Amino acid sequence: MTSEYSGTASPSTEKSTSTEKKEKPWLSIVGIGEDGLEGLGRNAIQAIEAAEVVFGGKRHLELAAAAIRGEARRWPVPFDTDVSDVVALRGRHVCVLASGDPFFYGVGVTLLRHVEADETACYPSPSAFSLAAARLGWALQSVECVSLHGRSIDLLRPYLHAGARIIALTSDAHAPALIAELLSDLGFGQSEFVLLEALGGERERRRQGRAADFAFEDIDPLNVVAIDVVAAEGARILPFAQGLDDSLFEHDGQITKREIRAVTLSSLAPRRGELLWDIGAGSGSIGIEWMLSHPSLGAIAIEQHPERAERIARNAEAFGVPALEVMIGAAPAAFEGLPQPDAIFIGGGGSEAGVLEGAMHALKPGGRLVANAVTLEMEAVLHAAHARHGGSMIRLDVSRVAAVGSMSGWRPAMPVTQWSWAKPW
Q1: Distance of alpha carbon 70 from alpha carbon 147, whole angstroms
Q2: What is the DSSP string of 410-422?
Q3: Which of 15, 70, 141, 412 would bridge with 399, disulfide CB 3.0–4.6 Å?
Q4: What value does the CA radius of gyration of the chain take, rounded to a whole number of Å?
């Protein structure tokens, strides 16, 4: 039955007629697994077939070859993180092939730094992490998922706790042996080590054993390592709390001691995605613990002594934060050209001319600055800054039990004066 409509348009009709028709997305992002086209839905296959240009790695393009009607383009080597070839085709029908879930450590994340989400349509497949958890019967929400693809295996270190379960996506056939070696060196050699290769495809294979007994050969470059962590006595476990034991760090005595470090990090108050400058970094302990607080955090350690700068880099690797940047130079000259920080810690050299003023000027509005003093000269600088700019000052005194002849007594450490200041907006 049909009827003609006459009269005043309804509100819903007015809205639909006055709103411009939204254009269809020009960019399709298709996650493809080792089962190729058989594992894709109809819409994903149609997106590949309709594309004038299809981007992907060699393996992806081969898996989807039967559906590609347009031009197949392999990603350049090295990979263009600006995806300029894709962006240059804006408005045409383009498809990008990715592994599994494009937005879980995938190329989809890179693409959306340069393309708006409403310009895209995404068709994900199960990620390697999901497939691994399914094969093992592990609850994925309780597993630490780490991508080591093109990244240091040291990133595993913060997750190595007794009873933890880790799924790590690797870069190549050599990574599993290096991971097993790292586990053994750190006291986790008895951990159950599962090697999962070519998940979802005809070549899928599973092998397992103890990390210390690793002897697998002929490893497929496309592999995932699953670890059920077992810690031996004395294993290097990095506690979640701030103020890690000083003995975990390599240092020459120039280190913010653990009790002072815990208070300092509390004063710095790390927040998601922020950048810290650690000025006069010494061993790098403040910047390292700042980065351990959350994976989104970054830090630049500024240190004028080259041997200490090398030590900071070694410590950063040993704590699983290899992305900590080390700048060799003296403040304030070393500040030039550095990205603007959200927080600054001054642990050494703060009494030198221009250091405190330069740091305050460089800090983002609303950012936090924390400076510690053990010398009278630096304490005088902080007292003057407090008088001019406000903020808060505290004095920290720590004593430790030490031998006094055949008995024990309290031995005080040098007191620390701390000034904390937030830059006005």
Answers
A1: 32
A2: EEEPPPEEEEEEE
A3: 412
A4: 28
**Phi, psi at residue 280, to the nearest 5°?**
65, 55
Q: Which two tokens stand for residue 408?
A: 């024990």
Pairwise CA distance, residues 354 & 365, whole Å: 19
Closest to 51 measured CA to CA, from 23, 90, 87, 93: 93
pTM: 0.88
Query: Which residue type does 246 have?
Result: D
Residues 133, 139: contact at Cβ < 8 Å?
yes
SS3 377: helix
333-346: string of b/e by CB count within 10 Å (b at 16+)?
ebbeeeeebbbbbb
Q: Is 370 helix (H, G, I), strand (E, B) or coil?
A: strand
37 contacts 57 by C-beta, under 8 angstroms: no
Question: Do residues 96 and 79 make contact, with C-beta atoms less than 8 angstroms apart?
Answer: no
Complete DSSP assignment for 295-335:
TT-EEEEEES-HHHHHHHHHHHHHTT-TT-EEEES-TTGGG
Q: What angle (nearest 5°) sits at the alpha carbon of residue 224, between those of residues 221 and 229?
A: 140
Residue appearing with tokens 């595993």: 156
Convert the pLDDT of each residue in 123-165 to its tens digit.
Answer: 999 999 999 999 999 999 999 999 999 999 999 999 999 999 9
Distance CA 405, CA 407 (A): 5
CB within 8 Å of 376: residues ≥ 6 apart: none
